[in-house]
Structures are given as C-alpha cells and as structure tokens.
Task: structure prediction
Amino acid sequence: VTLVTGTRWLNEQEQAFWRGLVMAGKSALADVEAELKADAGIGFDDYEVLVLLSEADGRRLLMSDLADRLVHPRNRVSQRIDRMSDRGLVRREKCSDDGRCTFAVLTDNGFALIERAAPDHVRVVRERVVDLLSPEHLRSGIEIFDRIHPPKPL
Amino acid sequence: VTLVTGTRWLNEQEQAFWRGLVMAGKSALADVEAELKADAGIGFDDYEVLVLLSEADGRRLLMSDLADRLVHPRNRVSQRIDRMSDRGLVRREKCSDDGRCTFAVLTDNGFALIERAAPDHVRVVRERVVDLLSPEHLRSGIEIFDRIHPPKPL
Result:
C-alpha cells in the first residue's frame, strides 16, 4: 500500500498511542465533568476559565490570552464569557480608552464558586488521573503534551 | 489549607500533567476532526466506529463491545449507530433469534468511506501527534494512557 499511495500507515504502537491519548483524555474528562456539573453546576471549560482568571494578576486576563490558553477559537471564547457574565461569574472590562482590547475579570461570585468546587474537583482529578501515575509518568507526560500542544507563556 | 479541608491540592507538576492531557488531547483532536469533516464529511467519533468495525472479525461488533471501546454511554452509541445507519455506513443485525443482542455491521459504503478518508487522516495524525514524538515517548505514553483508561480486550 505504501508504494501505491505514499501513505505511511500507523504501526501498532503509533495507533495505540493516538487512540490512548484520545480515549484517556475523553474518559477522564467525562468523569471530572460529571462531578463538576453535579457539584457546581458548571462544565470543565467554564471551570478552567475561572481557575485561569483566579491565578492571573488582578484576577483578569486579556480575552486573547485567555483564548490561547483554552484551545478555543476566539469567537467561541467571547460567547463563553458572555454566558458566564450573565451568571455573574466574570465581567468584561475595556483595557484602554480606545477600547481596542478587553479583559475578562473574575468576580467575587466566580471566585467563591471555585473555592467551593475546588476540593471535590481536585479529589476526582487525583482518583482518575494523578494518583494512578508515578512521578516519572508525570514528567514524561508533560514532555509529551508540550510537544503536541506547546504552552504559551503569559 | 490542607489541615482545614483535608484536600491534597495538586502540585505544579500534577497540575501541568492534568492540564496538558486535556489540552493536548483537545487540540490534536480538533485539528484531526477539522480535516475529517472537510474531507470525508464525518466527525472523529463516527470515523472511530468505522475503523473499529473494519478491524473486527466479519466487520461487525456487538453494540455493547463497541460502546466499551468508545468511552460513550450505551444509549448514545445506539443513537450514533442509528444516524450512521441512515447514511448507509453501518447496519444493525440481530445476533440471535431471541433478539436480545445486536451487532453493528460495517456496510460496503462505510468501508469505502474509510478507505478514501484514511490516507489524509493518517497524515494529520502524524503531523499533529505521532511524528512529534520519539519511540520512548510513545512507549511511555501508552503506559500512562492504559492506567487512566485500561483497554478492554475484544
């Protein structure tokens, strides 16, 4: 087949890796998300927005920086912030007089929500992922994930 | 905080791993899925169903076995098979006279679709994931993913 089509098919190891990445990510995220929804009434994407804002200086991030960190197209991040703003978890704020850029800012309500949700969330992340692995697994995994999705510095 | 709430918070490495897993999985899958949709008109979940059936004996799997492999609740797999059946890619078949179990069977149309879609799909999986990694990364990743989502034998 290689001669005819020029395709280098995946060998067994390569296929196992790719499927494993997708399946492990999806199955862990499904469990983590189920707990978050039941406990805090929000999905993992919204939770990540709250956490990223809570860790940033002044509990705020440029919308464009937020989009980079979330693997989302920018217009979808904007819609997400609108929905979270309707629930009082974040607010938009112009970052200069000419209004050419916008901050997403964590509200006190948003901060209270992660404070309340975090302990059970962390417990599930430990049970489903982190506590199943050795420090060597963690180190090696971070190296792998950085190659697939290089982190952008703030 | 640990003393008050009993929560073992994630350290920097643990948090980097967990976020990396989610982000790497999502970002690679988004690119792979965009190509599949543009090229073959199907999402990655449907593609995976076709591939799993194409690799199975007689190009058929029990619905329950398929569900185990897809990290989906069983009722959602059933709906997925209905939709794919409407498009002529798979068909349902009773596996015994009493009709207590059902096979999903790959049709010739379904097989033709993966044959056509596979070369470009594999190219993107290589570019976005597999070719970015060493054999040692692949070996270590498979070990990690197996702990998070243990594979079930057919």
Observations:
- Helices of chain B lie at 2-5, 12-40, 44-55, 63-70, 74-86, 108-128, 135-148.
- Residues 66 and 72 of chain B are 9 Å apart (CA to CA).
- Chain B has a mean pLDDT of 91.
